[in-house]
Amino acid sequence: DTEVTQTPKHLVMGMTNKKSLKCEQHMGHRAMYWYKQKAKKPPELMFVYSYEKLSINESVPSRFSPECPNSSLLNLHLHALQPEDSALYLCASSRVATGAAEAFFGQGTRLTVV
Amino acid sequence: RKEVEQDPGPFNVPEGATVAFNCTYSNSASQSFFWYRQDCRKEPKLLMSVYSSGNEDGRFTAQLNRASQYISLLIRDSKLSDSATYLCVVNGAYSGGGADGLTFGKGTHLIIQP
Hints:
Largest interface: A-B, 29 and 27 residues
Structural class of chain A: mainly beta
Number of strands of chain B: 11
Mean pLDDT of chain B: 91
Number of helices of chain A: 0
Helix content of chain A: under 10%
Distance between the termini of chain A: 36 Å
Shape of chain A: globular
Low-confidence stretches of chain B: none
Largest sheet of chain B: 6 strands, mixed
Order of helices and strands of chain B: EEEEEEEEEEE
Radius of gyration of chain A: 13 Å
Strand content of chain A: over 45%
Oligomer: heterodimer
Distance between the termini of chain B: 40 Å
Helix content of chain B: under 10%
Radius of gyration of chain B: 14 Å
Strand content of chain B: over 45%
């Protein structure tokens, strides 16, 4: 089973709303990631969690707040977003966060900020 | 962060033909290499890892040349279902051995024509 599950699949939110994206995996992976993908662009790394600790924050604005409650779950809390934050948000996991570990992606949450 | 370069295409190829994609990466410290496939409005899916010795999976062959920092993907006997964007992906480009994330090339768009 190489499944990473993301909810919701689609989200429309206003600029004053607070919402959360959720990601879950049961593969025993100890690394989880958030990526952002704009149309016709490749995914861009936002955050890396390794053993439930935030290891990499790619200078992401504070209106995006990640959280890793346990080794299977990864959340992304959203607050005061801008229309340019509209994108596909992809969660991924891998066995570990280094080396040749292959990463598996969830189906993504398509976010529209209005 | 270092770059991964790909020809964006599109490559228009008749069904049954052989097609090859290339990719170069700029960080010589990169450790792991992958090809992902992404269909329109879907998540990236791992196609294959790329090893120095080269590796083959059915109709797909991947090669890595560390000296030239060059990765290739060959698709033989192409099928209509091979139409997708092929993403060259490198790990180990963010840090020198600590927790890391994937760096994606912009992708090569492949269209297999009947």
